[in-house]
Fold this protein.
Amino acid sequence: MESLCVRFVKEKDLGSVFKIEKLCFGSEAYSPSLFSYFLTTGFVFLVAEFKGLIIGYCVAEVRNSEGLIISIAVHPKYRGMGAGSALLSKVLSLLDSKRVEKVFLQVKKENKAAVNLYSKFGFEVLKVLKNYYMDGSDAYFMQLLLKHSKTVKG
């Protein structure tokens, strides 16, 4: 998308990030203080910006040769514009550049759009985590193997 930009988060973006978090995850939303922690402690923390507005974000952690996508969300009003793909593509490229070999994430089984997005990028379901979320729903535990010699596609 022409005016969609994915960049590292800035402190001034955190209010918008939290609004998206609340819209997308409701009572299961992470706290503003946790997003501040992600910003200040070396997590890979990106935002998608469209016409000056923050419309999505992604947070990932790197531990040795493994990466964990902690959260990715796009404002409901701006879904279907490629922001989720752009965020995922950028975070996977950054994890690859940090020599991450495996990337993991958890996603609600019922979240078909997210499951399809992750599958499109090559993530595979390793197992089902029963009653993973506060509302009792199950999660898929998914994994992607990165190959450092190839560019991550999406």
Summary: The chain has four helices and seven strands. Residues 149-154 have pLDDT under 50 and may be disordered.
